[in-house]
Amino acid sequence: MNLKSMYSKSTATMKSSLIRELVASTKGIKGLISFAGGFPSPQTFPVQDLAEIFNEVIDSDGCDILQYGASEGDNFLKTEIKKWEKKDYLADDEILIVDGATNGIYYFTQTLINPGDVILCEGPSFLDTLVAFEAAGAEVVPVSMDDEGINMAELDEVIAKLKAENKTIKFIYTIPDFQNPTGVTMSLQRRHDLIKTAIKHSILLLEDDPYSQLRYKGENIKSLYAIAREDYQNSQVVTAVKSFSKILGPGLRVAYVLADKELIQPMISWLQKVIVSPNCVAERAVAKYMRDDKLNPHIEKIQKFYAPYMEAMLNALEKYMPKEVKWPEIEGGIFIWLTCPEHINTDELFEKAKEMKISFIPGSKFYPTNHERFNSLRLNFSYPSIEQIDAGVKALGDLLKSMI
Questions:
Q1: Which of 5, 24, 142, 312 has the smallest count of CB within 10 Å of its CB?
Q2: How far is CA 61 from CA 35, 53, 75, 340, 344, in A?
């Protein structure tokens, strides 16, 4: 049997995660300095606290929590999320607990997208999400960014052009805080402008928020979801997906969606078709971690932990990079985006750097199909040591100088 000939059309055309493939291609290289992954530092995981809480959960709630659970998630965790969010207007049927943020984004996409519908996104944006959008049959159209986030003038032009072509724009996907891959944070004014544009054109906003708690300097900026609910009294225009992966550990696979109940209900139906029952044990453990007031002190701890890594990266870039290479000012997160002169192809740079035992992700991987740009790259600073950051950026800077 030729099994490949039996694949569905979506399976046959579906792209895998190029980031995972690139990371795998450098695995096992002795002495490698990797800026490639998006891994949080294992030193930030609250291992002992979680070990005690998981033991407590099984010991006290085992007969209940080891059974199939409610598809929409643990009510105990929803209660703790509402307290932590400090949003009195949140109702249980506006919260969906999911097994990782990507699953939440998948359910939202399946709820809304017909083949040929358009999703707008920041260009560049997170590859794994773009792959999921394209697999759903969407046409994904990027809009460029500046130091305040998505370019509003270009967004207006793109919307007008697509509407003139009678295309259906379902939603705009954005990572407003410490964006992946650029590290840029959307300004407060830009958030208001984006919400007004979305309301004007009846286009939904999908706010992906895995990084907002990783702020090491500057002031917190109100989320798109909170702005829409509190300043525009609109519960429909923004759906937010939030994750504990970068805070407590990605292996927990606990995240949640905040959305209008008319979106939450069909998302629950999609969830039931994919996982049947959630990870009840992990959800209850996170809930009790929050109940015991451990989450905010832990966030403060990891903010202090990561701050020197960000400063080490920024200092090394300033010290070693050629003047032709540019990067944004960042105040948190785990990534920074380098833009090289147009003639530098960072796919080729990746191969040359690998020979020097340096790894990163080329910028072309963060654009939708047929919209790739090749002169940028993403560096991660949460996983390598401070010494590796300095040595790796120096080597990369020397290589870029020779190419420029």
A1: 5
A2: 41, 11, 14, 55, 57
Q: Could you tell me how many helices (H) and strands (E) the chain has, helices first?
A: 14, 13
Q: Which residues contact 161 (CB under 8 A, 6 or more apart)?
A: none
Distance CA 3, CA 9 (A): 13
Structure tokens given for 326: 């540019």
Residues 6+ apart with CB under 8 A from 340: 324, 325, 346, 349, 375, 376, 377, 400, 404
Residue owning tokens 């954005």: 174
Phi, psi of 329 (to 5 degrees): -75, 130
CA 120/CA 134 separation, integer angstroms: 12
Assign 72 to helix, strand or coil.
coil
Q: What is the mean pLDDT of residues 278-284?
A: 93
Q: Distance between CA atoms of 149 and 187, rounded to whole angstroms? A: 7
What would the two tokens of residue 156 be?
A: 């207006």
CB-facing half-sphere around the CA of 383: CA atoms within 13 A: 15
Residue ranges per domain, the chain?
Answer: 16-45+297-403, 49-292
**pLDDT at 25 exceeding the cut of 60:** no
Task: HSE, CB side, 13 Å, CA atoms: give it for residue 77.
Answer: 26
**DSSP code for 240:** E
End-to-end CA gap in the chain: 52
pLDDT, tens only, 315-357: 999 999 999 999 999 999 999 999 999 999 999 999 999 999 9
Measured over the CA atoms of residue 64, residue 69, residue 70 and residue 73, the dihedral's sign is: positive
Is the Cβ–Cβ distance between 218 and 186 less than 8 Å? no
Was domain 49-292 assigned CATH 3.40.640.10? Answer: yes
Architecture of domain 16-45+297-403: Alpha-Beta Complex (3.90)
Distance CA 397, CA 315 (A): 13
The one-character DSSP state at 113 is P
The CA-based dihedral angle spanning residues 254, 259, 262, 267, taken in that order and rounded to the nearest 10 degrees? -30
| Nearest of 353, 309, 336, 345 to residue 29 by alpha carbon | 353
